[in-house]
Amino acid sequence: MPEITTQQDAKCRSCRRCGRKLFLKGDRCLTPSCAVTKRKYGPGMHGEKKVASRTSDYGSQLKEKQSARTSYNLRERQFKAYFDKAVSHEGETGQNFYQVLELRLDNIVRRLGWGKSMKHSRQLVNHGHFLVNGKKVSIPSYQVKVNDIITVKEASMKNRQAFADLAERMKGKEVADWLFYDEKEISGKVVGVPNVSKVALDFDLKAIIEFYSR
User: Fold this and answer.
1) Which candidate, 127, 27, 116, 121, places its Cα nearest to that of 74?
2) Whole-number Å distance between alpha carbons of 55 and 200
3) CA-to-CA distance for 203 and 212, rounded, in angstroms?
4) What residue spans of the chain are helical by DSSP H?
5) Domain 1-53's class?
6) Which residues have a Cβ under 8 Å from the Cβ of 28 and sit 6 or more positions away?
7) Which class would CATH give 59-101+202-214?
8) CA distance 142 to 147
9) pTM of the complete model
10) How far is residue 42's CA from residue 71's CA, in Å, rounded to a whole number?
11) Is the Cβ–Cβ distance between 146 and 134 less than 8 Å?
12) CATH dotted code for 104-190
């Protein structure tokens, strides 16, 4: 039990360090119990008393990059690889970067509401609970495409630990406009491309691009 508590506290410290909610605990971050709501200052014994100082441009860019990377639960090497991929493709780097991050299978599981958090969504994918176009996919980084259909395996629906409260959690759940959720079939479909200009991001994408372009 102490180990679990430590892991949970680490998530809260990450959010407090970034100064914003990264929703690492899913819907719990929307409750009054959220650490960012209760303690609006950085972690550590001097966090509350620490005098705020002016952050350099580099420091601000680094903070935004860390916030985004933590939100998607990616290691630095993975995150940077996605940025390099975005730069190498035609079109706007910011849109390309956002698109490749959002179309990861584990992220789509999160966006559909099947996973309670990004970490939980990744665990569900790793355990092979989903089919993409009828084929089992257990790779979290799998890039889902437009018109792909993601379904929960029939056998997995009997897994009480993973999907016991799914029906309750999905009541009134709104999904992104580029996704369609079929409640009857318990499936999701990618009906469009995630557009960065249509969402309010929890991080400054421009600052991240500037950080990696230094």
Assistant:
1) 121
2) 23
3) 15
4) 2-18, 35-38, 57-71, 76-88, 93-102, 105-111, 118-126, 160-163, 166-169, 205-212
5) mainly alpha
6) 34
7) mainly alpha
8) 15
9) 0.77
10) 17
11) no
12) 3.10.290.10
Close Cβ partners of 55 (under 8 Å, ≥ 6 residues apart): 63
Chain segment 36-73, per-residue pLDDT in tens: 565 665 665 555 655 556 779 999 999 999 999 999 99
DSSP 27-87: GGGGSTT-HHHH--S-SSTTTTTPPP-PPPHHHHHHHHHHHHHHHTT--HHHHHHHHHHHH
User: What pLDDT score was predicted for residue 4?
Assistant: 44
Residue 50 carries which side chain, given as an amino acid letter?
A: K
Chain position carrying tokens 């790793």 = 126
Radius of gyration of the chain (CA): 18
Please report where in the chains the tokens 């971050």 appear, as a residue.
Answer: 29
